[in-house]
Amino acid sequence: MIATHRISVHVSQGIKARFRSLAEHQDMTQAGLLKQLIDSAVRNAGDIRADAVQRSGRRVGGARTYALLHPDDKRLLVERAACRHMGAATYISVLVRAHLRNLAPLPKAELMALKQSVAELGAIARGLNQLIRLAEQRAGMTGPTRADLLATITVCEALRDHTKALLKANALSWRAGNEAISD
Predict the structure, then answer these.
(1) pTM check: above 0.70
(2) Beta strands in the chain (DSSP E)
(3) Which stretch of DSSP H or E encloses residue 154?
């Protein structure tokens, strides 16, 4: 019979080493010994049906998914998650959930920070515009020239537009899912 489902468990390194020794002592693979132990436990449990466990209201599996990553990808994952002050599993969860539900593909804190910066750049531009109007009304006013203020507004607007474009491009590339990624 070919196995089609997998059971996973996390154990300490000490338990793993002792289990490996036990399997070797019995001249078996670890997987073979584990399967034998599970079969024995299920046989000795009596008449317990899988549907009875699901009806009892207890959650039965489904929340965890495991993925094998290339060591370089694992390193990048850990680094990028750490930059966001997140664990690697949480970061993966955020990315997968965003992709599956077509949400913004950024962690909430990053998205809020970008939106806040767009809003602040807009506020700076509006404030500088008011200063320009005030400077034009008062001929003897000292300080930045009209040209200085206009240049500052231009920079703020360019930053705002660039940030908006970054958010839009990020969302579009996430939906497409096939864009080239560079480090």
Answers:
(1) no
(2) none
(3) helix 146-176
- 76-131 residue pLDDT tens: 888 888 877 778 888 888 888 877 887 766 666 677 778 888 888 888 888 878 87
Would the pLDDT of 151 be above 70? yes
What is the helix, strand, coil percentage profile of the chain, to 5?
65, 0, 35
Q: What is the pLDDT of residue 178?
A: 38
Alpha-carbon Rg for the chain, nearest whole angstrom, is 29
Contact 113, 99 (CB under 8 A): no
Residue type, 1: M
pLDDT of residue 24: 92
End-to-end CA distance of the chain: give it in Å, rounded.
45
Report the alpha-carbon distance of residue 57 to residue 79 in Å, rounded: 39
Q: Give the separation between CA 33 and CA 31, rounded to whole angstroms.
A: 5
Residue whose C-alpha is closest to residue 66's, from 96, 86, 102, 108: 96
46, two tokens: 């009596």
